[in-house]
Structures are given as structure tokens and as C-alpha cells.
Amino acid sequence: MIGEERDYSYFTFDDASVLSAASEDPLGFIHRLPERSILDEVQKTPELLSAIKLSVDRDRLPGRFLLTGSANVLLVPKLSDSLAGRMEIIPLFPLAQCEIEGSKPFFLKNLFSGGDIANGRYEYLGEELIERILKGGYPEPLMRTSWSRRSDWYRNYVDTLIQRDIRDLARLRSLDAIPALLEVAASQSAGLINFSELASPFHLSRPTIRHYINLLENIFLVDLLKPWHSNRLKRLIKTAKIHLGDTGLAGALLHVGPEGLMTDRKILGRLLETFVFNELRKQASWTDGDITFFHYRDKDQYEVDIVMQQGMRFTAVEIKAAETVKEKDFRGIRRLQRVLGKQFAGGVVLYTGENALPFGERLSAVPISALWKG
To answer: pLDDT tens digit string along 314-367?
Structure first.
């Protein structure tokens, strides 16, 4: 035990002595725990899960164990089977901008309800948006005052995760390709994933690269955004998009600072789209009613960056790294609106300007700061 959080006692399996005690005598370790315990990095001790199951079956008091980890615990051998029906999974993302600001967001609620979000003037962000993208959402680098120190933290964090968590999840002959692969993935963030292109610099097979990407997904460094499709549409491109899990991390991997990001419009566009995707995903995680995320692209070159589904309602979001919005920016959203009909709740183009503007029925241009400004 290294400390307490409220009425919970905290144990981490990064501590070799704690890990040894749990591995040698799982039943005894669980039996001797205080009434409420946090067990951190639980993916390191799959043999403990049967003991937890037995303890939970004997005493169903909710909240006795809080299991945390830096890898997707559902993919740890034995865990999902051992604790099926006995646990609730809560993904913990990096901080959202509204959490950093201390504001309450209404963006998703208004978008799905058909509320009026095309109303008013928002704060002009300018260079502040660049700073927000490159800071990311991890608490530790947010407390650092310079871009170089934040980048050092992110790169050290990646090294630690790869050396520790990937070794726990998979037996690989060599981990040398993983950091370089993550850098390539950062350069392609918000793009359609191309496993052949990812594989070519490393002289590895497509299945091997696919396996490596899945591992990075399991430790929350990348996210694959599936394509949305309907039987009513026959000409869809059914390829996932890849997004880095945090834009601060992506900037550090790409060695791009504020000045570089301002001048490289291509990288800015990619990271801005990933930034918005991550913000929406974080807000969706605490919204009532499950929200599923997709992207849309067809062979006629109609596309929408983000499609969200809640029940039988759909919304569409396009992201534009520019201070003006034109009718043509709604091209893909209007196509999706026609296909969905009454199921289409609303669509927006998020842009870097100041004014929220209507562009037709249930269509709006909205400043990006509306994501965290209530």
C-alpha cells in the first residue's frame, strides 16, 4: 500500500513486492485486503481474477474493488470470462477541454436534440487553438510550462507503455518497430488506415502491422474509427480511419511545435480533426445513452469526418481548419442527410471562426470553441 484515496486503500502491481504477494497467494492476498481497495495495473496479475470472482460471489457489495490499468482489461487473458456480469467497464480518457476549463458542455445534447446551436458569437481562439492541440489532455504535461518539456514527457510515456504494457499483452520478438510505427501512425492521424503503407518502411507483413496496430489500440495510444454504412448505399469505402489517442502525444511524436503546426496546414488539418474526434468521444463517455462513432466516405467522394449514432438518431460533424465556411463544406453532410431522412438529427461544420451560423434545416457552421463553451 502506498497511500489512500478517500476510504479506499491503494495497491499497485508496479510494486514488485505487491505483485509477488498477489501472484504467490491470490486467495490470501484478496482475503487480507481492506474492505475497499484500488488495485492498479491489474492486467499484470490475471491469476488474481479468479480470487476476486470468488470474493465478489461471496459478498456482492458494490464498489469493493476498483480495478485500474493502462491497457484494455477486456483483452487480458481470463479477465472478461472471470468477471463477466460482475464488473462495469469505464474508459478513462485524457482530460477534455471542458474539464480543463471547468465548464459544462451542451454541444452533444443540443446536436442530437435538434436544439439551436447556430446562435451567437464565440471566443476567437487563434494561436490558443494551436496550444490546446499540442498540450493534449494528460494531466502531467498540462502542468509543464514549455512545449519541449511536454514533448519529453510524452515520449517517455510512450517508451514506458511499450516496454511495460505491450510486453504484458503480447510476446514479440522485438519491440523496436513499435515506436517508429507509432510515429508513422501519428503522421497519418485522421486518414484512412493503409496497412500496406504502414508496413513498407519496416519490411514487415500486413498481418504483423495489423497486429501491432491492435496492440497500440489496446493500450489506448491509437483509435480506429469504423466506417458507417447502410444497405441503402452500395458504393461506400469500408476502410477505418486511424486517430491518435491524444493530440499532445501526436505533436510530440511528429516533433512539431506551435510555429511548425501553424505553418504546416496539412498536419494542422489532421491534428485538428483528431482533436475534435477525441473531444467528442470524451464528452460522449459521460452522456446519457450510448453514442457510437463512425466516419462516412463513398466512391463518389462524398465524406463526413465524424458520424455519431444514439439510438436511431444520427448526427454529422465536419471539421475545417479555416475561419470561413462555404456551402460546399456541407456537401457530404447533405448527402448523409438525404440518405437518413427523419433519422438525421443535425449536422455541423466546426471551424476556427467566431460566429455560429445557420446553413439550412438542421445544418450549422459552429466555432470549435463551442465544444467546451457552454
So the answer is: 999 999 999 999 999 999 999 999 999 999 999 999 999 999 999 988 999 999
Q: Where are the alpha helices (DSSP H) in 114-146?
A: 127-135, 139-142
| Identity at 140, one-letter amino acid code | E
Q: Read off φ and ψ for residue 372, nearest 5 degrees.
A: -125, 0
Burial profile 234-251: b = 16 or more Cβ within 10 angstroms, e = fewer: eebeebebbbbbbbbbbb
* Main-chain dihedrals φ then ψ at residue 345, nearest 5 degrees: -85, -35
**What amino acid occupies position 96?**
A
With 0-12 CB in 10 A as exposed, 13-18 as middle and 19+ as buried, what is 74? exposed
Q: CB neighbours of 88 closer than 8 A, spacing ≥ 6?
A: none
d(CA 189, CA 178): 16
- Separation CA 43–CA 311 (nearest Å): 33
**What is the rounded end-to-end Cα distance, in angstroms, of the chain?**
41
Q: What CA–CA distance (Å, rounded) separates 199 from 141?
A: 31
Q: Which of 53, 137, 127 is nearest to 101 (CA)?
A: 137
- Cα–chain-centroid distance for residue 127? 24
pTM of the model as a whole: 0.88
Q: Which three cell numbers stand for residue 339?
A: 440518405
pLDDT in tens, 131-149: 999 999 999 999 998 999 9
C-alpha cell at 10: 491503494
Partners of 349 in beta bridges = 318, 365
Grid cell in block for residue 134 = 499540442
Q: Could you please report the per-residue DSSP string of 226-249? A: PBP--TT--SB----EEEES-HHH
* Assigned C-alpha cell, 361: 434545416
Q: List b or e across 175-208, with b for residues whose CB sees 16 or more CB atoms inside 10 angstroms.
A: eebbeebbbbbbebbbbbbebeebbeebebeeee
